[in-house]
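Illustration: Glutamyl-tRNA(Gln) amidotransferase subunit A.
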Amino acid sequence: MDLNKLTVLEAFEGLRDKKFSSEEITKSCLKQIDKFDAKVKAFITIDEKNALNQAKTVDKKIKSQESLSPLAGLPVAVKDLFCTKGLKSTGGSKILADYVPPFDATAVKKIKDQQGVIIGKTNLDEFAMGGSGEKSGFFPTHNPWDLERIPGGSSSGSAVATASDMCLYSLGTDTGGSIRQPASFTNTTGLKVSYGRVSRYGVMAMTSSLDTIGPITKNVEDAAFILGQLAGRDVRDSTTPDIKVDDYLKEIKKDIKGLKIGLPKEYFIEGLDEEVRRIVLIATKKFEELGVEVVDVSLPHTDLAVAAYYIICPSEVSSNLARYDGIRYGLSKRDGDDLLAIYLNTRSAGFGVEVKRRIMIGTYALSAGYYDAYYKKAMQVRTLVKDDFDKALGKVDIILTPVSPTPAWLIGENIGHPLKDYLADVFTIPASLAGICGLSVPAGFSQGLPVGLQLLGKRFDEKTILQAGYQYQQATDWHKRKSNLKT
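Result:
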């Protein structure tokens, strides 16, 4: 039995029924990493020793009949943007290549407190800046469905680790589509939570007003299960309100008959791959068969969202990344004549091209004389985008769209053309600007490449999109299909 291929809930039940041990699951995942990670390059750091020790600790508790927490003994891969105490946390950047944090991110602490098994830290576009998995400071990650193609980003390694059965689930971050897009490209299920639903404490900030934390899993049921363990108020993150955490696992089992799903005309535009359009519309018909009413809606400011995002995001990047200065921690180039030289030499050597590009754009947009023309205007557009979603979601329960205009493209295809990369986020960015929740679920294949379907819901209404996604997966089997990785 290939224990690494289990879903989270299958492993959860099997451990408690003593069908297998946590050590056996963990070794199965590590074996899969050993066989295939050289090809896909999902991991930056693999923590084999501590993972096996944690698994053995859980197995002792099982033998002694002690009650176990829901995540106990389950191997998870964590995006290397999360701080992990005593374990290298690089942010995918050379400037933090040897950084070992003295504390855990809240999401990581919750997993550790429940005796989860952290198997390693996954690759990402540097400091989450990118949508392809090519812009890591170390190496690109490859799509297991076609090793010549990108897996999406920035949570590239997390999506690939889950898709390749190197873990049972993974953690990623989503600022403008960084969970949903790689989930779509790798045939996994990716959940972007509402802004503030899961604590960001201890996760390296890129765009503080947009960053969210979420799981990448093998199906919607697992995503609901994991969210239930991670969501909630955190006194160390003031953006997490004290709002009830739903019993997502119970809620998803409810019938979706009578729900209203909206199709926004602005998401079915010229430039959308015809096969992707066809797949999404077939999925819409499946929802109608399940008793859902499908209606047309409008999100009129969609065409302005990408432009607004790529002013807001770099502006906050230029502020957040000022902390990496070569003085307090991380890479330090101290061969200059003065403090300014240390700053310049350290950041020049430590940051990659995309990070430098966004810092420069953001600094310009925030500078005297340009703030009102750029950043302030972008924030006004953000309000218009949010109002569009408020109005549309006042009429329907869920909005259904493609995740990406195309399937995964070839590695290197868009290098030197950053605007092409940016425009690939056209269908994911608006929901991020609005702070609402979104779910990517597998919906079909175009020329052998996975295509995802995006379900968007009201803020803090994750239960409804998870419910719809779960019922869709009960009626289809796209999410069960695996890539044909060979050694």
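Reading the tokens back as a structure: Residues 61 and 290 are 43 Å apart (CA to CA).
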